[in-house]
């Protein structure tokens, strides 16, 4: 998987409603600290999270977005399953220091996060986004709270990441502060919009969900 391909999975996968026409006005640094603290407090009791996802890939060369649908499951601190069921079945798994990528009926591709820094970084960010640990991402992104929202705009600090991702815009459910929408904007203007619905918190999740592409 190429470097750009890895960050495309990051744009997914995991990886945010209607498409934003403009970024909401920034709030103050105090608002940012308050929002991050509130997200952390609301997320403290969350052990597992499962939701339905819908991804819209907007490309300048196409008149209509490319649509993907599937399901995302996260278990703190470091397990994740991202499965797309349409239009092309694919599964991305993280289980501690190990990962697996399955596409269609092909053989699973397994990798060690310790030997693949790009995939390790991607995994940490995906689990941080969905588990509410946004404060941990401040080393990687400049952040602004936005109002109305609640929401965040995140700009990559790493020039290598910035070549692929111009900014991330996250909107949260006002009551639960679970993410409801993520938009990834690329430097060239292409963008990916991910909506999270049917969120289930602390439901029973079998361990093999994070290690088997097609658990029975």
What's the mean pLDDT score? 81
Number of distinct beta strands: 11
Rg over C-alpha atoms, rounded to the nearest angstrom: 16 Å
CA(first)-CA(last) distance: 27 Å
Helix content: 10-25%
Uncertain parts: 6-26
Q: Give the tally of structural domains.
A: 1
The CATH superfamily turns out to be Lipoprotein localisation LolA/LolB/LppX
- Strand order, sheet with most strands: 6-5-4-3-2-1-11-10-9-8-7
Mass-distribution shape? globular
Beta-strand level of the residues, as a percent range?
35-45%
- Classify the fold: give the CATH topology: outer membrane lipoprotein receptor (LolB), chain A
Do you know the CATH architecture? Clam
Give a structural overview.
The protein is globular and about 50 Å long. It starts with a helix and ends in a 15-residue tail after the last strand. The chain is built from 4 helices and 11 strands. The protein has helices at 3-12, 29-43, 117-131, 159-162, and strands at 48-58, 66-75, 79-86, 90-95, 98-103, 109-112, 141-146, 151-156, 167-172, 179-185, 191-201. The protein has a single domain (3-16, 23-210), classed as outer membrane lipoprotein receptor (LolB), chain A (Clam), CATH 2.50.20.10. The protein has an 11-stranded antiparallel β-sheet. The protein is of the alpha+beta class and 216 residues long. The relative contact order is 0.22. A hairpin with a 4-residue loop joins strand 7 (141-146) and strand 8 (151-156). Helix 1 runs parallel beside helix 3 (117-131).
Topology:
Elements: H1 3-12, H2 29-43, E1 48-58, E2 66-75, E3 79-86, E4 90-95, E5 98-103, E6 109-112, H3 117-131, E7 141-146, E8 151-156, H4 159-162, E9 167-172, E10 179-185, E11 191-201
Antiparallel strand pairs: 1-2, 1-11, 2-3, 3-4, 4-5, 5-6, 7-8, 8-9, 9-10, 10-11
Helix pairs in contact: 1-3
């Amino acid at each position: 998987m190429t470097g750009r391909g890895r960050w495309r999975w990051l744009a997914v996968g995991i990886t945010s409603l209607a498409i934003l026409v403009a970024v909401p006005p920034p709030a103050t640094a105090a608002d940012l600290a308050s929002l991050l603290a509130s997200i952390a407090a609301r997320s403290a009791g969350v052990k597992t999270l499962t939701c339905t996802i819908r991804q819209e890939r907007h490309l300048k060369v196409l008149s209509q977005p490319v649509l993907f649908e599937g399901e995302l499951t996260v278990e703190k601190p470091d397990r994740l399953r991202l499965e797309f069921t349409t239009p092309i079945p694919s599964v991305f798994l993280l289980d501690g220091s190990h990962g697996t990528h399955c596409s269609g009926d092909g053989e699973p591709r397994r990798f060690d996060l310790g030997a693949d820094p790009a995939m390790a970084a991607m995994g940490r960010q995906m689990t941080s986004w969905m588990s509410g640990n946004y404060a941990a991402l401040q080393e990687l992104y400049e952040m602004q709270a936005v109002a109305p929202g609640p929401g965040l705009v995140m700009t990559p600090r790493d020039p290598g990441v910035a070549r692929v991702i111009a900014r991330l815009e996250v909107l949260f459910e006002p009551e639960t502060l679970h993410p409801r929408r993520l938009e990834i904007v690329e430097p060239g203007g292409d963008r990916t919009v991910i909506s999270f619905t049917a969120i289930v918190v602390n439901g029973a999740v079998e361990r093999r969900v994070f290690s088997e592409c097609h658990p029975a």
